Amino acid sequence: MLASIRHGFANLARFSGRDPRERFWPYALVIVGAAFVAMFLSFGVGFAGSFQKTIAYAEAHPDKATITRSGGSVSVTIHEPSPELMPDMAPMFLGLRVAVPVIALLLAAAVARRLHDTGRSGLWGLPPVVFLGIGLALFPSLFQRLMAGDESAMGLFLPLFANNLAYLASLGLLVFLLCRDGKPDANRYGPPA
């Protein structure tokens, strides 16, 4: 397993050749797992700050909120919602806009080599990246417009929803292709690894 992970990092820029499933998946799962941990921490920090802001608001406005403390937990009920209590999503979106290209770059060559092993072009790996990029570019704008009460933002919702469905479908197809058996003989991408 460690050899597979080392191989993935050592061949970040090698888009030629072939990699069997046994060499691809340990590396890919480490990258995806690390990305999820990083994003979870990023969002956790953002929402923790938002929760602290909500508690401060509730303490400053006891007529508009109720704080209930029980054991080690705290519950805040806001009776009159205030836009200032919405979490600041900008840092979280920025984190995603930085993390996703890094993840795509770390996986690109390995995905291409794995697809080559199944006899397919590495270009099969591009559609999910394109759809994800479109979503990451447009979703923050939709979110900000919705939070500002802009009703015209709903015109962006359906195209983004369709884009998300296309992303999920293309990602599902890509994972299916990455799980396929490799060709036992040499193919146009070279001999088996």
Structure description:
The protein has helices spanning 2-10, 21-60, 90-117, 126-147, 154-179; strands at residues 65-70, 73-78. It is built from five helices and two strands; from the N terminus they run H-H-E-E-H-H-H. It is elongated and about 75 Å long. With 193 residues, it is mainly alpha-helical. It is 65% helix and 6% strand. A two-stranded antiparallel sheet has the order 1-2.
Could you name the key traits of this structure?
two-stranded antiparallel ribbon; mainly alpha; 2 strands; 193 residues
Summarize the structure in short.
By secondary structure, the protein is mainly alpha-helical. 65% of the residues lie in helices and 6% in strands.
Write the layout of secondary structure elements.
Blueprint: H1 2-10, H2 21-60, E1 65-70, E2 73-78, H3 90-117, H4 126-147, H5 154-179
Antiparallel strand pairs: 1-2
Largest sheet: 2 strands, antiparallel
Low-confidence stretches: none
Q: Please list the strands of the largest sheet in the order they lie side by side.
A: 1-2
**Count of DSSP E strands?**
2
| Form type | elongated
Going by helix content, strand content and strand pairing, the class is mainly alpha
Radius of gyration (Å): 22 Å
Q: Order of helices and strands, N to C? A: HHEEHHH
**Strand coverage percent:** 5-15%
- N-to-C span: 16 Å
Please give the count of helices: 5
pLDDT averaged residue by residue: 89
The helicity comes to 55-70%
